[in-house]
Write a structure and sequence with these properties.
There is one protein chain. The chain is 42% helix and 21% strand. By secondary structure, the protein is of the alpha+beta class. Strands 1-3-2-4-5-6 form a 6-stranded mixed β-sheet. It is elongated, with a radius of gyration of 23 Å.
């Protein structure tokens, strides 16, 4: 019966078209699954903190990050891991890419960073290049709350998300923009 199918040129052509479509869809699905597991960004700076810096508030985060990103012409996203005493133990800095607004690590990366640092408390921060713009965008709010919900599933507490500008700062938590 298959001989008749493969002897007919039209049926053979249809078979090859369907095979190509099936392979294309399978490859696309596999690529999507692989890409979903890869981080969106690679940290440009990651370092363990040896000194005694304590981050007890959004203002402390601002004063710590201002020399690093406050006057930068590039947007950065910072992940600051603190221990139970709010002592800074690790810092990861990301740069903006063209596909998204400033978004940080995916939840798997957050969990890995927290485990490596032996902590479960994190501050997020990013800078706005415009001097007077401390208002988060809708994307900032949405992405931060999405990361908070995902982090909570792993037992990680996002303390705040601080916006740093050349002349000021803002706390998304103090402004009531973050989920609990």
């Amino acid at each position: 019966m298959l001989d008749v199918f493969f002897d007919n040129p039209i049926m053979l052509f249809i078979f090859w078209i369907l095979l190509v479509i099936w392979l294309f869809r399978r490859t696309s699905t596999l690529n999507t699954e692989v890409n979903a597991q890869l981080p969106l960004k690679t940290p440009i700076r990651s370092r363990k903190i040896d000194n005694h810096i304590f981050l007890n508030s959004a203002e402390d985060v601002y004063h710590y990050l201002y020399p690093l990103i406050g006057n930068s012409s590039v947007e950065y996203f910072a992940v600051l891991l603190v221990n139970s005493s709010n002592k800074l133990v690790d810092e990861i800095l990301y740069t903006n890419d063209q596909r998204y607004s400033v978004v940080g690590p995916n939840p798997c990366e957050l969990q890995l960073y927290a485990q490596e640092s032996g902590t479960n408390k994190i501050f997020f921060a990013h800078n706005h290049i415009q001097e007077a713009c401390t208002e988060p965008t809708e994307i900032d709010i949405h992405d931060t709350n999405r990361m908070i919900v995902q982090a909570q599933k792993s037992g990680i507490h996002i303390i705040d998300h601080v916006i740093v500008t050349p002349i000021s700062w803002a706390s998304m938590r103090q402004n009531g923009l973050l989920v609990d």
